[in-house]
Design a protein that fits this description.
3% helix; mainly beta; Jelly Rolls; six-stranded antiparallel beta sheet; five-stranded mixed beta sheet; 139 residues; single chain
Length: 139
């Protein structure tokens, strides 16, 4: 098992929302991880770090290159399948939060959104994009 850190594909400058109330405006962060060989069972791909007190309102995962029989779940440090209980990456695609627990979440500590590989597929290369919509902590 390995912890794989996705690269943040959005920049602070692009995410800046100036003006009145910008601390309560929804933000989107996108992280990308590209793999040259199939991730192993138990590997965890992490998004960019999200600040404690933020409210995560939506999670989307975009996969390409996952092989047959690959499965995954999406969650965070305290609950590894909070947003997606069991996704299948056979053909790749777009996966939205679909678990019964998938509702707005206030982060108690700084944390990441994690894609945990439950079964590795037979593939040579691919990508994982983790797109998180959240409202940052109001300071």
């Amino acid at each position: 098992m390995a912890i794989l850190q996705a690269s943040k594909t959005s920049s602070a400058a692009l995410l800046a929302m100036p003006g009145v109330g910008d601390g309560q405006s929804a933000k989107v962060t996108s992280s990308n991880y590209t793999f040259a060989a199939a991730p192993a069972t138990g590997d965890i791909i992490q998004s960019a770090l999200i600040q404690a007190g933020s409210v995560i309102t939506d999670v989307k995962v975009v996969l390409s290159g996952f092989g047959a029989n690959s499965t995954f779940e999406v969650g965070y440090g305290d609950d590894t399948d909070y947003w997606i209980v069991s996704g299948s990456g056979v053909t790749g695609g777009v996966f939205r939060d679909s678990a019964a627990t998938a509702r707005p979440l206030v982060l108690v500590t700084n944390d990441t959104v994690d894609v945990k590989i439950n079964a590795a597929g037979a593939t040579a290369a691919g990508t994982v994009d983790i797109i998180v919509t959240y409202v940052p902590r109001n300071n």
